[in-house]
Amino acid sequence: MRAAQNERLTRVGPGTPGGTLHRHYWQPIALVDEFDPTLDPRMRDRPVKRVRVLGEDLVLFRAAAGRPGEPSRWGLLERPCPHRGADLAFARYEAATEGSAEFALRCPFHGWKFAADGRCLETPAEPADSRLCQSVRQKSYPAVERAGVVYAFLGDGPPPPAPDLPCHRAPASHSFAFKGLWRCNWLQAFEVGIDPAHPSYLHRYFRDESTEGQFGRQFRGASAGEVDGERWPMTRVLRERAQPEIAFTPTDWGVEITTLRPIDAARMHVRVTQALFPHTFVIPLSETITITQHHLPVNDTHTYWFSIFTSYADPLDQATMRAQRLATIDLPDYIPRVGRHNDWGFDPARMQETFLGMGEDINVHDQWAVESMGPIADRTREHLGSTDKVIIAWRRLLAAALDAASGSDGAPPDGLHAPAAIHGLRTFDGITRAADWSAHWVEMHAALRARSPWSL
In terms of pTM, does the model score above 0.90? Predict the structure, then answer.
């Protein structure tokens, strides 16, 4: 790849081809948990948070609390006040009007107040008959709450329909969202998740153990199906079948990735995952739980991953899942405690336990892989192989979408703009019959989903 191509694929700031493309899509910008005062006491009286998205500095606030069981309403404004440019991240959080349940932000510099939609509500220092307020509007962006995540649309004009993936349709009891910061460009963060070959090495465990009560060890869970009456954990499949057969099929939303690992003449391990344009993948965690992971470009060199766990069977133990993950990061910005500053926890002695020697949390494994490439991976130095076919295909898809989004008509590319088109997302991880694996995994998937208490 030429350096200019790499720049075009990775840069996301305002006015760049990548920035223009990403602004055609809804972006995850915060967890609803970030406004929970038990996690961040600052939110008790002032649920206001600065956010950085696609290189833009914004301020997010709870504009109105939803009724029990319903989502809140959110305001998302540019941070410089339109009066003299003071930072609205330090604004006062006040009722929009006296006695109102709607909230607004008031700039402390001269008292100008702004509603969630950017309307200027007051310019109190101006004369009583001033109409200045009617001619001023702060730049605002639509924001909606889905499955514990706040999404925003930073594009121009009316937004497309809000995200509507299977993870967004689950009951609140069957969903859990979390996030973390990686110090690298969004594309390398995303590419690790659509690479089917790396788990046999990066996530290789030398012992197979129970996953009960553990976090970050999902590859120790057993796949659906059996071999001679024995359920194989994924660790064994990945370790003993390390040369996968990889294929992908274009879809309306991106690509469906199929990874085959033959067990023997009669059995085939099949793993099916989904890549959704521009930066989301959906993968199986177990027979009944999926992970939908977005990769928010904070700027060119930082990325927040947002993971939504969805159970198609029992309710999730959200308190335990949250506590396990909070032990690995620092609030309020969800920054991992390991990183380049401490060699990601590397210990050569632990290479007897795992291939990498950075503990058993696969999130740390992935973090090392993408951060160790540098803030923006130098793709001019790569030597891609046949197992990189999905990576190559996605880069071509991205390049074509950049051309479309930057064209004279500015037409957005297809993808998440058509929520109805992505009701059929399927993920699978299981051992099937080898002779008719392509039909058998579909039957097994349908049977698993048929037992779900809520799945559509």
Answer: yes
Distance from the Cα of residue 69 to its chain's centroid:
23
Confidence band of 157 (pLDDT split at 50, 70, 90): confident
Answer whether 338's CB lies under 8 Å from 356's CB.
Answer: no
pLDDT in tens, 74-107: 999 999 999 999 999 999 999 999 888 999 999 9
CB 333 within 8 A of CB 181: yes
Query: Could you tell me whether strands 26-31 and 149-153 are parallel, antiparallel, or unpaired per DSSP bridges?
Result: antiparallel
Is the CB of residue 1 less than 8 Å from the CB of residue 379? yes
Query: What is the 8-class DSSP label of residue 23?
Result: T
Average pLDDT, the chain: 91
Element spanning 356, H or E: none
Q: Which residue has the higher pLDDT, 225 or 122?
A: 122
| Token couple for 374 | 């540098």
Q: Give the domains, in start order, of the chain with CATH numbers.
A: 26-153 (2.102.10.10), 166-450 (3.90.380.10)
Report the percentage of the chain scoring pLDDT > 70: 93
The helix/strand/coil state of 263 is coil
Bridge partners of residue 146, in order along the sequence: 149
* Segment holding 259, helix H or strand E: strand 254-262
Nearest to 444 by CA among 455, 434, 429: 429
Show the tokens assigned to 199: 């788990």
Please, are residues 303 and 181 in contact by the beta-carbon 8 Å criterion? Answer: yes
Structure-token pair, residue 161: 């329909």
- Contact present, 103 and 61 (Cβ < 8 Å): yes
